[in-house]
Design brief:
25% strand, globular, 562 residues, 8-stranded mixed sheet, 15 helices, Glutaredoxin, alpha/beta, FAD/NAD(P)-binding domain, disordered C terminus
Length: 562
């Protein structure tokens, strides 16, 4: 028997699936979310804890930022990355990263990054999804397959460990089901890229670390031995929970036959401290991106679409940005004013970002794993001191890009998207660390503090916004009326603030619901209706069909740079 679900089914209840459900509900759009586990964060996993600026801007729009801060890492604890032989051993160097409280506010954003462990962040998202009341949350349901046709998708579910099966019929299926995505495999979409190595992580509770007098001020300790970087210790909650990882193994580690206790004691540099192993999880470190994010009515997001090394913290943050881009598009289509071409644009917009971010993380990891000159790292005397000093200087220099990622988080752009209208301006530099704001079409609409204390970002989100920043000879409302004639939500915002005009550089700037600039000019377009149809996906071919066209951009083209 097949139930009718008139809308969107999301597979996977991690941060990307929950983020997509939340953004849809925030827009008033219902969905169903299917998760195999009986509840959110049912298992304490060794997962992400860094929420970068773009993700925090989204949390601010959703109205949950205060709760993220409340549940997150203490604001006053420093975030240094320490390069050492153990938590009580030799210090090779450190990258100084101020506490969230003391870190300066970046001028490019109204917020700064936060640290919130995923076992806190996921339930927070789930709580907000429930509060909005538009998502059918189906925990304890296993996704087992689907069929699609031109009219919709039939999704097959089963209670884990049973033969009890149900099917639901929906308009669109979004796979947020992880790196091993059954959906992607059933579609036959290649996962292009390379495997970097195998790692194993453990969540551990250390009862009295202070008694060891460890190296101070570290949130992250990169552990070095004669073989090079062999592990890391990352403070998860600012109290007693740590994530310990062993890195760089060519063979997969079987936790059933691997004694991790000696490795933890090597990391601590002592046998005297008590610790409790909460969970051990082997995993594969890879740099892979799906060959397509869209096949007919089925879409991929998060780890189902791209995998990254954790070195840089781009995985979850890139996935949340996938969800934000996709949510407004699905809402537009389901609400009747968006064309199917929006979903083709989703693939063409987000796949290059996945390639870019995955390659950046792989480069960071390559800098970790440079093993040259480590043989004397534990030696006493001048040779050991010289070895440690050289390694520390190398790591401090080469890992700068891992700890400073504002360009990665805010600087992605959709310049080649078919629903972005270029204005002929030259491209800006795509620097992973440094970010220069620009209102060039395809870029994030810049943050500027307004005279009333709001950010320009507070103007965007619900629908399109047409900013008029100075007087023109024409009536800007003509463009608004063209949009409203096809039920496209749009608001005309009149601003006469020099700081905004200086940065946005045009009299008229059209901003999408996800905060990206779609078009800008000093005059109205010759054909306003054509412009409106372009930005709402009416001039892009996508359906019927099972796969978008292949891009010239390939993960293999950047693999060697990792």
């Amino acid at each position: 028997m097949t139930d009718k679900v008139a809308g969107i089914v999301i597979i996977g209840g991690g941060p990307v699936g929950l983020g997509l459900a939340l953004d849809l509900a925030w827009r008033g759009q219902p969905s169903m979310l299917v998760e195999r586990d009986p509840r959110t964060a049912a298992v304490l996993l060794a997962k992400a804890n860094g929420l970068h600026e773009r993700t925090i801007e989204t949390c601010r729009r959703w109205g949950i930022l205060d709760e993220v801060i409340k549940r997150g890492f203490p604001q006053d604890l420093p975030g240094d990355s320490v390069y050492c032989t153990s938590l009580t051993g030799h210090v090779l160097g450190r990258s100084v990263i101020q506490s969230t409280r003391d870190r300066p506010q970046p001028p490019q954003s109204p917020v700064k990054r936060q640290r919130c462990p995923q076992y806190e962040f996921d339930p927070l998202l789930a709580d907000e999804v429930r509060r909005l009341g538009l998502t059918d949350l189906r925990y304890g349901q296993e996704f087992v397959g689907f069929e699609q046709d031109n009219d919709g998708v039939t999704v097959h579910l089963r209670a884990p460990g049973t033969d009890t099966a149900t099917s639901v019929r929906c308009d669109y299926l979004v796979a947020c089901d992880g790196a091993g995505s059954l959906t992607r495999r059933q579609l036959g979409v290649p996962f292009e890229g390379r495997m970097l190595d195998f790692s194993v992580s453990a969540m551990i509770r250390i009862h009295d670390l202070a008694s060891l007098h460890p190296i101070e001020d570290g949130e992250r300790y990169i552990l070095m031995g004669p073989e090079g970087a062999w592990g890391s210790m990352v403070w998860v909650d600012g109290d007693k929970i740590w994530r310990f990882s062993i890195v760089g193994n060519r063979e997969k580690i079987d936790p059933e036959h691997f004694d991790i206790d000696p490795e933890i004691r090597r990391a601590l540099g002592s046998d005297d401290v008590k610790f409790e192993i909460l969970r051990v999880m082997p995993w594969r470190r890879s740099q892979c991106v799906a060959a397509s994010y869209r096949c007919g009515r089925v879409l991929l997001a998060g780890d189902a679409a791209h995998t990254t090394s954790p070195t840089g913290g781009h995985g979850m943050n890139t996935g949340i940005a996938d969800a934000v881009d996709l949510a407004w598009m699905l809402d537009a289509i389901q609400s009747g004013w968006g064309g199917d071409g929006l979903l083709t644009a989703y693939d063409l917009e987000r796949r290059p970002v996945g390639i870019r971010n995955s390659a950046s993380a792989a480069r960071n990891y390559g800098n970790w794993m440079d093993r040259d000159g480590c043989v004397d790292v534990l030696s006493d005397g001048p040779e050991g001191e010289a070895c440690r000093r050289k390694i520390g200087e190398r790591l401090q220099s080469s890992l700068h890009a891992e700890w400073h990622t504002l360009g990665i988080e805010l600087g992605f752009r959709y310049e080649n998207s078919p629903i972005i209208v270029p204005d002929g301006s030259p491209p800006t530099a795509d620097d992973g660390s440094d970010y220069i704001q620009a209102a060039r079409p395809g870029h994030r609409a810049p943050h500027v503090w307004l005279a009333d204390g709001r950010s320009t970002l507070d103007l965007f989100g619900r629908g399109f916004v047409l900013l008029q920043l100075r007087d023109i000879d024409e009536d800007a409302d003509l463009l608004v009326r063209e949009a409203r004639a096809v039920a496209m939500p749009i608001e005309l915002v009149q601003l006469r603030e020099a700081a905004v005009l200086d940065l946005y550089q045009s009299a008229l700037v059209l901003v999408r619901p996800d905060g990206q600039v779609a078009w800008r000019s000093d005059t109205l377009p010759q054909d306003s209706a054509y412009l409106i149809d372009t930005v709402r996906g009416m001039h892009v071919h996508g359906m019927p069909g099972t796969r978008t066209r292949r891009r010239t951009l390939s993960i293999n083209a950047v693999a060697d740079s990792g």
